[in-house]
């Protein structure tokens, strides 16, 4: 069962290409010398949005002719890299909704590669005036050195045909969780989201400005409650 990446998502391919070429960085990682990784690690091409309550957020718009946008956010979390990765990859949707309340439901459609990779269906709440969106993603978790790496790619699957009552969006990105000392970790997430359908750019920009801050703070609270220090 093959996954399909939509050719027009240029930004997403650059991010994922960079991800595949990651090796040791920040004293522990060294980056393969490629422009995509350098672009990902720097602020070039990214527009700084905010630095608030320990969260830094950037956005990138105009990735192509559609309503695609990319968001990058970083924050130090009060748990280890392995603990945070376990939260990010949990299949308990009651837990997931605590840090991502836009998700209504989801299901794992297929597991692969010794359960390191899965195809997942996700249904999200509608954002007025848009119809509900759903997504099919290939999610993979890997240990790289002492860090945790989680990648998302848009996919197709026979158990998740094109929807009728929802709009099929496309979600791609990465989660990099690095040890930061004192039992904490540095969490960096980069997402490219194409909401599909007729999504006004002003709504996309509103989402890019507000959603990552809320997401990071809620994830921090879940981590603190799940792994009290």
TrEMBL record:
Recorded hits in SUPFAM superfamilies, A to Z, give:
Bet v1-like (SSF55961)
Q: Tell me which GO cellular component terms the UniProt record holds.
A: cytoplasm
Report the CDD domains cross-referenced here. START
Keywords annotated in UniProt: Signal
Q: Where is the START domain?
A: 45-220
GO molecular function terms listed in the Swiss-Prot or TrEMBL record: lipid binding
- Gene3D superfamilies recorded: 3.30.530.20
* Signal sequence region: 1-27
Q: Which domain of life is it from?
A: Eukaryota
Which PROSITE patterns would you find in this protein's record?
A: START
* Annotated Pfam families: START
Protein name, per record: START domain-containing protein
Top-down, what is the taxonomic lineage of the species of origin?
Answer: Eukaryota, Sar, Stramenopiles, Ochrophyta, Pelagophyceae
